[in-house]
From TrEMBL, chains A, B:
Reaction(s) the record says it catalyses: a secondary aliphatic amine + O2 + H2O = a primary amine + an aldehyde + H2O2
Organism: Oidiodendron maius (strain Zn)
Domain called Amine oxidase: residue spans: 41-482
Entry's EC annotation: 1.4.3.-
Protein name: Amine oxidase
Entry keywords, A to Z: FAD, Flavoprotein, Oxidoreductase
PANTHER family: AMINE OXIDASE
Length: 485, 485
């Protein structure tokens, strides 16, 4: 697996073009209208709209690649696999539109046959379609369905642009989602399903999350005309996991970057300070620039690691102290073929045990090889963050054999991405809200500070935490800047 | 009020000695055994023990003064007042011992007469001693007492060095303190008392705190022989607010710094990076040094703003993303005399309304002038963080008049310290634990990473959040280093 160099070469950037710390320490500052900090989808989208409006823009990226939490890996067999955000689905209008505009193609996530359920040390299978029902006892299934319905109906009352204005906001934001589940669910198989919802959507245990934040996140899984639902978050068919992108989702970021003009993106250009001057800002770091305004397109916890002069208002700083990244990894086992398909399995498994508790068929659309992807999330990821890659691999394959049989051991390659250990992510997929975050600090998420504007999927009213939300936030921040000029 | 320059002159450091960024950018690194990052009480204590053991030490302090969250202000009337940590009390053995060793004197916090209670827009007074009872209805008082007893008895079962090992740890750490109060307290006056406990001890609303963290903090309010209790946290007599220090608590830090040799402390020496080398660490910033080991004596949320190469383990980084500072300010109104004393009032008030909900008599021991100190905490502080000092002053004096009568308007000076707005604090008094912090990340609080050792009051088993805890953490970290060498 080669990540950095492959991506760089796909962007036609030679290593001699890379920004070098010493080289730039004393060079004169470039004067721009709006630099953008971060070449993830939010930053690149903001840059696109600002450039189209005639602004001079440079995207300053700490990594040697574009995409942020969206990342392709190149496999030994010549294919690719996705280590970060991977799926798109209905109501994700902005990312679907961008995919189409950039000339990329989507295809349906493989979803033919049965899903696997591993529960109480027993393996079962069930039809994967909308009518499929996990093999759990009926009272538990009814209870889980009732809880889901309750979540949806509460979520439907939330204003996704200002969840803190809800009449019950203080109450809901004062309790953990886990505690609400404790007081609502009596049957352990129902609780298992809801805990899996928490870890697979947020990469956080239910006890880490504010109940208001969870309701707000459910509400955000839609668009201006369709309110979000639990099903649209968790399902494959007609939901957030419905489709994939030919060639891998990082192509969205790469093609978007190419369309901006590659000279407008500076790599290895970590920003370390943003200093107000008499007429704008000096952006300090490996590639110093000066500008009237600046877009910070980073997750809140990482944005706080830039030094701001003068310091940011307490509301913004204390927000960033309180909004952590989830704990997430992706493990992808590569096979000669997607062998599970011949067993009438989708490759999707749900489990109450092991390091991997949710899997997907990550094979390419032509099934030229097989790929089983497993999410490692929350407590499981934290348990394995410091362990060797071999230890993780052994634990993952042990689970895959439980779910898909002994053939799961016959891998040709094993790819592991632990986002918790990435310097410029330190977790994933999204910075989440613990109790009291939204009611006390919510407005500071996207409130500009002078000429400093904040983007990132965390600031989006729809599809917070997804590629679609990142793109929406980039569009919003560009509009915000253009309206004030 | 002059803070920085006065303190600097008291430390006999001229401004030409101050470290200047440009001056040090290219100077050769100093080679040391153990640099200490942060000249608060924890860092200074660690430096003291390391120097006494023969190590070469420099304390690198970003501010132009020692003390961190301990700070004297010099008043126009020639006196001083305390803007940060202020009180000491029984079982705070380490800080009491240090005060005595440094030749400083303590005196009893003024506590003669009656306290004021402002509740439901009504002012009442009640005897301030141990037998005093706030004028609330008896059922509420009984309920509050029962809750306090329950908290104490649960706290008594906690191992303060490892709260996450308690049999109920997962359950307690999965709920907010506010939610536990919701399910335990039915009477609103009782809830008022417990909410005031939360804001005045943690500078956080009860909904921000993990219930396990609260129990652990209560347990920590003692020493190796006396388990902590709610009363020892909140009371004046025989408790954490029992005594004050002649000349102000910052004298502890100043005299400790003098005892180390002032040449061993570098001011304006913000550390920006800690980089592992083949045989130790390079400490980058305004005063670059190299060393085998390093002590980071900072609160977790600020320690994360240093860049570490290689990056810190996920367990440590994600801890720092999840442990925010409380929101706190102190407002001190200065008067010709402590006029409330002639009304048989202690100067202590508790309130359910206004910007200030807990006050103390902050006059000096000789009562040569009067000083009323009010804490501004949690939601109240956040509401006023961005407002003008005049607006805060007006709101504070309005409260003081409610509590102590119209004479409270006759101030000679008004001193305000908003810790949320301090660049090198960004809140206070302590970084607290939201739900799941201790059970998922607790061990990372003081676990060294290679030769990087962590101090700070947040890491102390006793008197976490207090000066005593800071000193304990400095002693522990020095011992940790000396034992490995």
């Amino acid at each position: 697996m080669k990540i950095g160099s492959e991506i760089l070469s796909s962007l036609k950037i030679s290593s001699s073009d890379r920004v070098n710390k010493a080289e730039f320490c004393c060079s004169p500052r470039t004067i721009l209208s709006v630099p953008v900090v971060g070449a993830g989808l939010s930053g690149l989208t903001a840059a696109r709209d600002l450039i189209n409006a005639g602004k001079s823009v440079v995207v300053l990226e700490a990594r040697d690649r574009v995409g942020g939490r969206v990342l392709n890996a190149h496999l030994a067999n010549g294919g690719i696999t996705e280590l970060g955000a991977e799926f798109v689905g209905p109501t994700q209008d902005r990312v679907l539109n961008m995919i189409s505009t950039l000339g990329l193609k989507t295809y349906d996530t493989y979803n033919v046959g049965n899903d696997v359920l591993w529960h109480n040390n027993t393996r079962g299978t069930y039809f994967a379609g909308a009518s499929g029902i996990p093999p759990l006892d009926v009272p538990s299934l009814l209870q889980a369905a009732a809880v889901e319905e309750a979540l949806d109906s509460m979520a439907a009352t939330i204003d996704v642009s200002a969840p803190w204005t809800h009449p019950s906001a203080l109450d809901w934001d004062g309790m953990t989602f886990g505690y609400w589940l404790n007081s609502t669910i009596s049957l352990s198989p129902a609780r298992f399903l809801l805990d899996l919802f928490s870890t697979s959507v947020f990469s956080a245990e239910s006890e880490e999350l504010s109940f208001l934040y969870v309701l707000s996140y459910i509400a955000s899984a839609g668009n201006e005309t369709l309110v979000g639902t639990v099903e649209r978050l968790i399902n494959t068919q007609d939901a957030a996991q419905a489709q994939r992108v030919e060639g891998g989702t990082q192509l969205i970021a790469i093609k978007l970057a190419e369309s901006l003009g590659l000279e407008n993106i500076k790599f290895n250009a970590q920003v370390r300070s943003i200093t107000k001057t008499s007429d704008g800002y000096d952006i300090g770091g490996n590639y110093p620039v000066s500008a009237k305004q600046v877009v910070v397109a980073m997750s809140p916890p990482l944005a706080s690691r830039i030094e701001y002069y003068p310091i940011l208002p307490a509301s913004r700083d204390q927000l960033t102290q309180r909004m952590p990244m989830g704990s997430i990894g992706k493990a992808i086992a590569i096979y000669e073929t997607p062998f599970w398909r011949s067993q009438n399995l989708t490759g999707q498994a749900l489990s109450d045990d092991g390091i991997v508790r949710a899997t997907f068929d990550n094979s390419p659309s032509d099934a030229s090889f097989g790929a089983l992807m497993g999410f490692i999330e929350a407590d499981e990821m934290r348990q394995f963050d410091a362990q060797s890659e071999d230890a993780v691999k052994a634990a993952v394959l042990q689970d895959y054999v439980k779910y898909f049989g002994p053939e799961a051991n016959n891998i040709t390659e094993f790819v592991l991405q632990r986002w918790d250990n990435e310097q410029f992510s330190r977790g994933g997929p999204v910075a989440y809200g613990p109790p009291t975050l939204l009611t006390r600090f919510g407005p500071a998420l996207k409130q500009p500070v002078g000429g400093i504007h904040f983007a990132g999927t965390e600031t989006a009213p729809y599809w917070t935490g997804y590629m679609d939300g990142a793109i929406r936030s980039g569009e919003r921040v560009a509009q915000e800047i253009l309206e004030t000029n």
